[in-house]
Design a protein that fits this description.
The protein folds into three domains: 192 residues; 82 residues, Roll (Nuclear Transport Factor 2, Chain: A), CATH 3.10.450; 47 residues. The protein is built from 15 helices and eight strands. The model has no long low-confidence stretch (mean pLDDT 87).
């Protein structure tokens, strides 16, 4: 008879847990991985599907915040209350103006109105509701399965189950020190099922650390109160605006405008980057200016905040991340780590691949289980048919290499002519390359 501890460490027990989790919740794990990968590039996906949101050739100076807000009010005269202006992260981007609770989606968990405004012309380009665009629909599917509050809690529970699944997978993978090299091998000539299982084990091992980090941060985003209790922080969850500060000054006929409020807010942080401006709501409302200091890890939702009274023009309160406690600093890392922006472009790409790996692990694991139960037959895999293709690729690579070399030389020659003009006008590399190719095609047509 086995002791309880021996039974707990039995491989058969952990295998049953791993299989049960995969069969019951594996589809949702794969769905969370795929939608999370797409959401890593949510802004890029939105611009790809809506090219009108990209300013190809930015010209002139940006319009004042007051003029942009006037254009938004003109487009939506019946929407009264607070608006939040989010600054673009590139010269080609739009200013997004948010209205949190529009009447059309008032009873949904989160479905604000998003108004895209050209910062150079103050033209309202698009007005859309969150959840009704492809990128926001995918993100809602990732965060709450499109089920509002119930789905939000369900995703949190799925995250905990995924963490258990990953840990059991690692336990089942461990072969002991002597067998490590054997389980790292990929067997190509043993059939489709065994090859899929080898890839399942290897990719599961490589992606496990990143997936555990993503699950941990995701669960904390689903249940921010748990992290606040452990870290000793309050009002620090993602999207939290901080304290609710109201104006105590006497209303007058000379309220402070948006540009003036921004100028005042920059006083304590002259080198900070403006990220968001929230307009007052009602007579007791107050400006909330969100800035980003260079040391802040969170780029889209920084924590540097200045509250400016619109009647007196004075700073009412300042929130400076440099004075945060260790627990509060830890909390500020949760969102940028989960989205990958904390690690730059390479980090986002790595996070994208990790999300895709969840789908791959589900498919290969399910394939292996179906084979063991006689539902799927194994098949031989032969790579001999790919050898002629490989040889042709080798033969053509030399010719293509020469063509690429000649093209590079031509582009460098054109760069001598266009580089000074594009540097002066602030063009991007993509625009520079596109114009060179267009001009080259025109010359060839002639």
């Amino acid at each position: 008879m086995q002791f309880p501890l021996q039974r707990l460490t039995s491989r058969a027990i952990w295998l049953k847990i791993h299989i049960c989790l995969a069969l019951s919740a594996g589809f949702f794990f794969a769905l969370m991985g795929l939608t999370g990968s797409l959401s890593v590039y949510r802004e890029e996906l939105d611009e790809l599907l809506n090219p009108q949101l990209v300013i190809e050739q930015p010209t002139g100076k940006r319009q004042s915040l007051d003029k942009i807000m006037m254009a938004v009010h003109a487009a939506h005269p019946d929407r009264h209350g607070s608006w939040t202006m989010e600054m673009p992260r590139s010269p080609q981007g739009m200013i997004t103006v948010w209205f949190d609770k529009p009447r059309e989606t008032f009873f949904e968990l989160y479905a604000p109105l998003m108004v895209s405004v050209n910062p150079y012309t103050a033209e309202v380009v698009a007005s859309r509701f969150w959840g009704q665009t492809v990128s926001t629909w995918v993100l809602d599917l990732h965060t709450q399965l499109r089920l509002d509050g119930f789905g939000w809690n369900t995703v949190g529970v799925l995250g905990l189950l995924l963490m258990v699944s990953i840990c059991t997978g690692l336990y089942l993978w461990w072969p002991g020190w002597r067998g490590i090299l054997s389980v790292l091998k990929i067997r190509y000539n043993v059939g489709m099922i065994k090859l899929a299982f080898d890839l399942h084990r290897l990719i599961g091992l490589l992606s496990a650390p990143i997936l555990l980090l993503l699950v941990f941060t995701g669960v904390n985003l689903s249940y921010p109160s748990i992290l606040e209790t452990l870290a000793g922080s309050s009002g620090m969850e993602h999207g939290e605006t901080g304290r609710n500060i109201i104006s105590t000054a006497m209303p007058n006929n000379h309220p402070v405008g948006l540009e003036s409020a921004e100028f005042v807010a920059r006083g304590p942080f002259p080198r900070a980057e403006l990220r968001r401006v929230t307009t007052p709501a009602g007579e007791s409302g107050i400006y909330r200016i969100n800035l980003r200091q260079s040391a802040e890890i969170n780029q889209r939702h920084p924590y540097t905040t200045v509250w400016v009274d619109r009647w007196s023009g004075q700073i009412r309160e300042v929130r400076n991340p440099s004075g945060f406690t260790q627990g509060e600093i830890f909390t500020t890392w949760i969102w940028p780590v989960h989205t990958g922006e904390a690690f730059g472009g390479f980090g986002r790409l790595l996070w994208f691949v990790a999300g895709i790996s969840l789908f791959f692990l589900y498919v290969t694991g399910l394939l292996h289980w179906l084979h063991r139960h006689g539902k799927v037959k194994d098949r031989e895999i032969s790579f001999s048919g790919l050898r002629p293709l490989w040889y042709r690729l080798q033969a053509s690579s030399y010719r293509k290499g020469l063509m690429l070399f000649k093209l590079t030389i031509g582009l460098l020659q054109q760069a001598r002519l266009y580089a000074p003009i594009f540097i002066k006008n602030g063009k991007t590399f993509a625009q520079w390359l596109r114009l060179i190719i267009i001009n080259r095609q025109k010359r060839l047509e002639k």
